[in-house]
Every structure is written in structure tokens, then in C-alpha cells.
Design brief:
Layout (H helix, E strand, L loop, with lengths): L5 H6 L5 H8 L4 H12 L8 H10 L10 H24 L3 E4 L6 E4 L5 E4 L4 E4 L9 E11 L7 E4 L2 E15 L2 E15 L2 E5 L3 E6 L2 E6 L12 E6 L1 H12 L2 E4 L7 E5 L4 H12 L1 E6 L2 E6 L5
Parallel strand pairs: 5-6, 13-16
Antiparallel strand pairs: 1-4, 2-3, 3-5, 4-5, 5-7, 6-7, 7-8, 8-9, 8-10, 10-11, 12-14, 15-16
Helix pairs in contact: 3-5
């Protein structure tokens, strides 16, 4: 596109048929069209012509001046350039934000072809427009990463960071607890000013000042296949995962210090609740999408 005025004349609707056809074949045409449409949707201020006309008619009349036509073209070119610059800045500098509602998961690909699966009730964002200089991903919730060979990036959570060293791994950051599991390769986990490197089938759990190392035998997290897996987790955390998985609200007055380890079904909410009911001695009451759990012993 060698003609510097081509885009300006396109915005003004002044292109010849051959020029328009050439522009439409340009690989960037879809982007130009998206920018134009975005700005056309911006609400324009209301124009009160009546009062302005009365003010103009009361002004002293001066001889008319002839304005050369080239000035109009120059103004249109500058205006169009400003619109395009602002449009590019608006569209290409926005972070890519991914999020999942309760009961849903989402798979997407990063700019380096690494694959990500976002678990229910989670959010992630990154900058695809500046990926080569800013290989950072923000995560609030849980996600499984399958990194493209030779690629590196950092996952930032409210509880710590995980730096990729070519791997498959899972990151979960919820309710003040960070769980990281490495399934392949290596990851560097940063937390509370410290660092640890995980190798395949090793995990680390950080909760406040407590740090626990672990060993896993599976090749991927069970939630990928629809199951809910827990390792010494509080009842509130377990119920939170059930809420996100089944898109329900759970109310309980039980504040048990007993932790739960094991697997719950991801396709049978009644079975999951019955398991917890037997373990924690709970009664189950359903009211639509609201579930009420109460202690059989009257404890709180």
C-alpha cells in the first residue's frame, strides 16, 4: 500500500472501483474494517442547530473567503491518520481476557501455540499484541498448561508466580492457597520471596507460611476429565469447587477443621454431596439451584 492517501480516501468513500478492490485484497483489510466499524459505533454528541444558526445570523457579515480544495484533502488525511492510529492503539493494546462461568471450561491457544484449559469460575489474561516482549499470563482460579516445545512464559497469580521451562503443569490459586503440579518438564514456582523448581510428578502447595511438597502419579489433572480432585483441602474449598463445577449455590453453617482428600464425581452432584454428607455428617436440602447443608449433630 504505497499511496499514503489511500486509507483517508477509503474512509471518505472516494476510492475508485479498482482501488477498492485492491484494498479489499490487502491482508490487513479486515483489521481496517474493524477499526472503521468500531469508530462508527461511537455515540456522537447531539448537535443543536437552531440556537447556533440564530447566533450566526446575528454576527457581522464579512466577505466570503475562497478556501483551496487541497486544504480539505490535507485535513481529511490528517484526521483519517489520527483515527487509524487511535484505532490501532485501542484494538491491539487491549489484553486478551479469557474467563469461564460456573459449570464451564475453556480451551485456548497462546501466541506461541501453547495450549491452555481454563477450569470453571476462572479468569486469565495476556497481551497477544506484545507477546514477544511480555510473556506474562495473569490467572485467578485454575488452569492446565501444555507448553509448546522450547517456549517460556510466566503465570502470575495473587499467591505466587510459575515460570515455564518447557512443560505440562497445572496451577490453582483459590481462597489463599496455591497448588502447582508439574506433569512434564520443569517449572519454577515463586512465593513469599522464595523459589522452588518442580520436576515431573512433583507438586507444591503454599498456604500462608505453610509449604508442602508432594508427589503425583497421574499424567494430567483429573478435572480435565470432569472429576474433582482434592488433597487435604478445607471443606469450604471443596464446596467452592462443587459450586463452580455444577453452577449451584451451597449454604452451610458448618465450619469444620477436618480436611478432605479424594476424588468426587464431576457429573453426579448427588453422589458428590452424599460422600461429603457421610464424612461430615450433614443433612442435604435442595431449593432449586440452592443447596443447604446442616450438621446432623447441631455443630457449627
Amino acid at each position: 500500500m504505497k499511496d499514503d492517501t489511500l486509507l483517508a480516501r477509503w474512509l471518505a468513500g472516494e476510492l475508485e472501483a479498482e482501488e477498492l478492490a485492491a484494498l479489499e485484497n490487502d491482508p490487513r483489510y479486515a483489521t481496517f474494517l474493524r477499526i472503521k466499524n468500531n469508530f462508527e459505533q461511537i455515540e456522537r454528541p447531539r448537535f443543536e442547530g437552531g440556537p447556533m444558526l440564530e447566533d450566526i445570523l446575528q454576527l457581522e457579515k464579512n466577505p466570503a473567503r475562497v478556501v483551496p480544495l487541497y486544504r480539505k484533502s490535507w485535513f481529511q488525511t490528517v484526521a483519517a491518520s489520527i483515527v487509524l492510529i487511535l484505532g490501532f492503539a485501542f484494538i491491539f493494546t487491549r489484553p486478551d481476557k479469557m474467563e469461564t462461568a460456573n459449570g464451564k471450561t475453556l480451551a485456548f491457544t497462546l501466541p506461541d501455540n501453547s495450549a491452555v484449559v481454563l477450569n470453571s469460575g476462572s479468569e486469565s489474561s495476556y497481551s497477544s499484541w506484545n507477546w514477544d516482549n511480555n510473556r506474562n499470563i495473569s490467572l485467578d482460579g485454575e488452569a492446565y498448561f501444555r507448553v509448546a516445545k522450547g517456549k517460556k512464559f510466566t503465570v502470575n497469580t495473587p499467591l505466587g508466580t510459575v515460570t515455564v521451562m518447557g512443560t505440562q503443569f497445572n496451577v490453582k490459586a483459590r481462597e489463599g492457597r496455591l497448588d502447582v503440579v508439574c506433569y512434564e518438564g520443569k517449572v519454577r514456582v515463586g512465593y513469599n520471596g522464595k523459589e522452588t523448581i518442580l520436576t515431573p510428578h512433583h507438586s507444591v502447595t503454599v498456604e500462608g507460611a505453610s509449604v508442602k511438597d508432594g508427589v503425583v502419579s497421574a499424567g494430567k489433572p483429573k478435572w480435565i476429565d470432569g472429576e474433582l480432585e482434592f488433597e487435604y483441602e478445607k471443606l469450604s474449598a471443596v464446596l467452592g469447587e462443587i459450586e463452580r463445577k455444577y453452577d449451584v449455590e451451597i449454604r452451610t453453617d458448618l465450619n469444620s477443621g477436618k480436611t478432605f482428600s479424594g476424588t468426587l464425581p464431576g457429573n453426579d452432584i448427588d453422589g458428590a454431596l452424599q460422600t461429603l454428607s457421610r464424612l461430615y455428617r450433614l443433612t442435604i436440602e435442595k431449593q432449586g439451584k440452592t443447596i443447604i447443608l446442616k450438621s446432623m449433630d447441631g455443630k457449627k
